[in-house]
Amino acid sequence: MLRSTPISLACGACAVVVGLLAIFGWYGNFVKLFQWVPGTAPMQFNTALGFVGGGAALLCANGNRIWGQRLWAAVPAVFAGVSLLEYLWPIDPGIDRWFIEPYVLDQVAHPGRMAPNAAVAFLLTAGALGSARGGGDLRLWITGILGSLSLSLGMVALGGYLIGLKSAYAWGSMTSLSVNTAAGFIVLNIGVIRLAWENTVETGAGGPRWSSVLVGLVGMSATLLTWQAVRASEEISIEDKVRLKTVSLKKDFENFLGSQGLALQRMGKRIDFRPGMSHREWENDALNYIRNHPEYLAIEWLGPDGQVKGLVPEEEAAVLRDPALASAPGFWESVKKESRRDGIGVFSTVPFTGGEKGFLIAIPLIGEPREGFIVGFFEYPRLFGNFMGGARGEDLGFALYDGGKIVYERSTGREAGEDLPFYRARIDYPNTDWEILARPTPGWLEKNGSYTALWVLGLGTVLTLLLAWALHMEMKARVLALQVRTINLQLGKDLEARLKVEEKLRRSLAEKDILLQELHHRAKNNMQVISSLLRLQSKSSRDSLVQSMFRQSSSRIRAMALAHEMLYQGANLAEVDFGEYARSLACELLNFHGVPGDQIRIEVHSGGGVADLDSCMYLGLILNELLTNCLRHAFPDGRKGRIGIHFDTSREALCHLTVKDDGVGIGPIDIQRIPSLGLKLVRVLVEEQMDGTMELIREPHTEFRIAFPKIRNAVEEENFPI
Q1: What range defines the domain where residue 684 resides?
Q2: Residue at 544 is within a domain
Q3: Residue 674 needs a FRET pair 20 to 30 A away by CA distance; which of 180, 458, 470, 617 works?
Q4: How many Å separate Cα 33 from the centre of its chain?
């Protein structure tokens, strides 16, 4: 189903009103209702019916009344189709005068028949209205395109009225499209296009996908029609100029014939009124005429029976005294006939002895007794060579016909048969059958031609393509902008959801951090309590071996408690900086064993290595045992020395912990059969818990080298001695 649009409804109603007003005007003799501009073509009755049908079909389309839409759209289609057939073939079914006998015939070739451009526009509009149905974008695309073509016809015609370009609204000599008809097509097709526009599937581009095609078609249609109109106007202008020049040539030639006839009459009258005029005197008089009028080939004085009494100039005698001329059928009878009428006889297309053609002007002598005739001889090439000199000869080429046969031709410089503007003019002079056909010369066409039509075509095409391309790109940009906005909205929603999740995670992590800190704190406190209890227990026993065992156990528990303490005090609850841990543990062991600070120097080099809780526990116990062993046995009797702790994580697969001292050294013991509980604990932790290896080096100093799978590296930290 189609969605109704206010603009489309208003346009349909306006089209119906325009048609009804014209119908009412024809029946009521209100001319202004169907002829808005006096002197221009009226809206024909069938055209008015077409607007009523087209407007009603548009209203039905807005109301989704399919059958009404089809029936009303058939009205303009039928009238327009029959009118076009009448223009194409010589048929007249009388449809132009079915309803009324036309009585306003301004710019009308066939009374009552709509203009051919109106018929084409109605067929396009009917096709557009027939396609305007729901069910897919293709139908609406066809509706928009056909409506735009019909709209362009109306726009071009109305533009022609505004700028005074008749060929824009009148196709040749056929009936012109009226002002109100052009306006009606514009209004009706705006409604058709708007209906298709509003019902096309939305793309988010501010219009249908075919809008750029629509704009391009409208622009190109308007450009082509305007170009054709301007070109036709230029051709009409050239034809008018050629016609004016031809008419001017015709008038000048007729005036020339009249003036030369009068001149010869005056010569004849002198002979009539001076019967005793000498032959010498007549020759001088005739020579003066030829000098003043070079168009003359010769002047001859004939007697009543055709004998030559005088000829000027003598050198033309061989040309003029052609026996064929004197014996031409009816020649002397015609001369005598003119003599009886006392008129001027013009005898056209007479062959001369030299092969050229010309004509004669014969003047009868009217004295008593009749003395014959004065005959002027004119050769076509000489006459028109002088007559067409100057600008006129440069502008026009022409041919002279006598009795339908060409007797003289002046070339136009173009190939024969080329389609050039020409004009025919008949010479109005007694006893002649002359006709002039004139054509413009190439130079005149180049000088008077105009490139306006080509400029209109080129500029209109470029502007139309640019406009269509700009609209296409604008729509693509809008679609992309809509997609970007949609994506941004979705991203915003996703980001908001992620932020909420992250906030929940942060809260959860904060809660877990608090719980872990509390756990580490409590584990550390519990281990300190255990360590304190063991130390108190050691003091209650008098057995030195028992006291030593309790003190060692307390030291081991303290090493583990220290790891928990560093975890809950640090920012990271999962890892411990091993260098910081080793230094803290070494300080506590020095204090625990009562070693003065200046006796033994402990240096820690960790390289920024870190350890998780489990590894830190193992490493803490290992370091506790090794440092305790050094403090108890490597430096007897207050001997001073140095203990080095190296923790290396720079290698690819393994971490290395090295503890060495420069004390008295260790005896020859087998590391796999160590009797000491502490060293046994170290070996078990390294090999079984950490999947590592342990190596004992005795020379030059005692050194324990422990290797185990690598743990990750923390921020590099500068080493410093304790």
Answers
A1: 574-721
A2: no
A3: 617
A4: 42
